[in-house]
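**Reference record**
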Amino acid sequence: MALALRTWPSRLVARRWLLAFVPINAATAGFGVVLPLLILIPLHGSWSSVAVAATVFNSAVIVSSVAWGHLSDRYPLRRLFLVINFGGYALLYLALAGVTSIPELYGLYTVIGVIAPAGASASNLLILEKFSESERPTAFASYQEMAMIGSLIGLLLGYFWTLDGDALASLLVVLAGLGAASAVAIWFGVTDPSRRATTAQVAGHPESLASRLRSSIGFRTPIPFFPFRPRLGRDALRRLRRWTREELHHELPLIFIATFLFNLASNLYNISYTPYLYGAGLAASSIFLVNLSNNFAQTLVYPASGGLCARFGPDRIVQRASYLRSLGYLATAGFTFFLFDRAGAFSANVIVFGVLGAAIAVYTTASSLILFRGLEGRDAGSLLGVNSALGGVAAVAGAALSGLLSTFGSFRLVFLVSGGALLVSLPLWTAASVAYQRRRHERELRIGPSATGNPGSGAAPE
């Protein structure tokens, strides 16, 4: 029997206050496209400038994720943290609308990275505390639907706003208004719950875990999740090596490495993609539409991803999704060999980026199920901390590598490296599936199949 993950809510809005997440997701989705265009067009920056901005942002996100997780456990002020997050975005977007230099943009974008994890922690804990155990699968699915609907609204707004010109500064003012609208809606529409959950409890629910591991639609990078503050110091690497040796019989190290490669490839590709589209001659409005194709495909496919994993098994789905993503990256590299006109470049990228959106939707669900399966009966909080730390390293490394290749390489090389990294991850997912099946079989031999209580993958490894 396959482990199920509900990705399709029984009703679109589980509670009316979840609608407050629509404007903020519209704002962040639009901002994810505006920021690199702001660097490239009015500030006359380069691909390397976009990469540096991503590097400082991702570095700030990693450090602040630990702090916000600790604060969320110590002070159960979910509404206040969400208002800080959403209201902070609004103020910072307004400030970015008036920047005149790239160093100013770096500083403001770093502050955005500092406050970004505040909402991720608070929103998941708010759902855990506001909904009963039986309601949570629908609540988290509804929460994801609000995020995807908001992203579509934000990208459509960006398209129409820039249709007659590159009015990026004024668009930032509108996005700031959307962030402020969510902050006001949360402040007046939500009360802090009476019962209290902790970040470690997020790991106990596959839906909430999937929500935390899902990449932010606006920033296209996962917000790291540290249920416990990592213990850093001279012994950190020694502890990691000891843990790896002890876990060689388990599939988790293979999952972590495969996920690291996926995150590295995704960050490298996504950071370079908007500069590539701009270099291909696409207008700002066309770049918004290309991004819309990705998010629209996610919106269509994600609700069905749970059913696909239950039917075919997460092991098979995660491999198919990774392979499809790698083909999309390689196809983008192939575009650099041809002299497209603007219409041709636009059409080709709409198709490929849409396919990539569908692939990430099913990958997120399948990989979350596989990770959740491996965490059962173990110290999930600490293990998720290791996984998040590796994800953070991948985010910073992807941004840094993008900056390096912007100086010594080309877009073609970036997309080839991204596709190659994903292809390397495929045998790791296969090995992880085999290790899980072997571990499950050994456990059944020890205590009997009826007593394992451990759901299978739903499909034999290939």
Observations:
- The longest helix spans residues 411-447.
- Confidence is low (pLDDT under 50) at residues 454-462.
- DSSP finds 14 helices and no strands in the chain.
- The radius of gyration is 21 Å.
